[in-house]
Amino acid sequence: MAHSLGLLTVVILLFTVYMHSTSADEIVCQPFKSIPFFSTPCTKPKWAQQGITVAGTTGKQGSSNIQLIGPSGIFIDPYDNLFIADEGNDRIQKFSPGSKGVGLTIAGGNGGGSALNQLKEPRAVYVDSAGTLFITDRGNLRVQKWFTGSAQGITIASGRGYTAHWFQGLSGNRKQINEIYSSESIMGRGRIMKYPLGGDDSPSYATLLGSVTRNPGGIVVDECNSVYVADPFGGNILKFSSGNSTGEQIASGLITPNDVALDTYGNLYIVERDTNRVQRLNVHDGTREVIVGNKEGAEGSDSEHLNKPWSIAFDSENNLYVSDKENHRVQKFSFHEGDLLC
Fold first, then answer.
1. CA-CA distance, 311 to 169, in Å (whole number)?
2. Considering only Cβ atoms within 10 Å of each terminal Cβ, which end of the chain, N or C, has fewer?
3. Domain extent for 225
4. Which domain CATH number covers 98?
């Protein structure tokens, strides 16, 4: 009995020490799935090399509900709805699963302009977990917030106090709905900003997270609020961790990287605009490979080629979507096989 009590005391003491050493303040945020320690050999993931046009008409720009003009930023929500910044038509188009290429205008579409029900050259789009829409309204030097079903937007960030203040990429932490992140440039100097979502566009309410040498591209935010940004002119992907304003270079030697996405294991997917392809960076072993588009960088309008790809997104089945800007379409490359952890 005494032996049992002694053992119980030791167990209680060890548990107490463990709980003390892993207090809430010391828990490290983990934004991605961990690779199993005892994992079996796996197969690298592969995507179809022939894309399927899911929005727009190849090589034919237009303003009908089956056409696009120079689509730029794209976003896919948890329900696999595809949102497209239809830049040339000054509108945001929504394509639901099963829409068969017929889009619905959910913001703008009233001609290019600066009224609250208008957009001008929208560049990026993001939808939070509440279904609220956020748009970089580049031609109007502002970021707009549109509630679901609203006929007009609210300005939450404005660059009208500066010369050549352009809003580029837009993203957020899907677990939070109280802030939005943007990549911006002022007179050619880039920066990453965080804005609250109270509707006030006063600069005093914004937080500067870090700087990029020149005009930044698209961004993505993980669940620990680290920001990944494409640096087209530097040929890099930079990571700004929470509380660290110095960007960490996590990919280099790229050719005009224009947008970046993450999978559940933290691997990076990068659009190289001027080489008309998408690369995948395995963050665990540092290897990089072209997964869709032409490996030699050639442009084209058939199902295997792209022409100035702009933005990327994944649906719930790991299918890859690419906004193919100069072909006025969005292409879907189906996920074929393999494991994302490889």
1. 10
2. N
3. 51-336
4. 2.120.10.30
